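Annex B. Sample input.
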Amino acid sequence: MLDADFFRRWMTVAAVSMDREADRLTALDSPIGDADHGSNLQRGFAAVRTVLEKEAPDTPGGVLALAGRQLISTVGGASGPLYGTLLRRTGKALGDAAEVSEEQLAEALRAGVDGVRTLGGAAPGDKTMVDALVPAVDALADGFTAARSAAEQGAEATTPLQARKGRASYLGERSIGHQDPGATSSALLIAALAEAADGAEG
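Annex B, continued. Sample output.
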């Protein structure tokens, strides 16, 4: 079972990862976006880490809801609302339980991804974060490591696609040949989940 500490650890690992990978995310964003994806998420997840150290929600849902609110309030552009919606919807779906199962997390995360799809109007194949998140959620039934691999493969598979949503879609065919930064950061978030799980088992 997964408790609030597990979810705090997930957010902490994610913050470390976004900080480490900020330059790479911004480099991916430069040709097809506003060249601020890395710095935005670096700032947002640092704020999440700080608020979770000050406040300590005692349920998994509470941790993710607080993290989502913090991202919405600190991250500019589309990333804040999209990541905020992902975490808030996931947290809401988890409810007030003190502990949740991996199966419950998978169901809740699917609700979060559905929220992202509704907000952004994106579907798999549109070259967005959805291309990493949907296969990750589908693979969660086989464990966190499988979800991590599926998210990474989904992100890499955005390279040959033409963007149909978001800032990159304005470029038309010029968006082809660039890995989507949102899918890449989403894969980092799922990788952080797998790393948190490894720490729990260790």
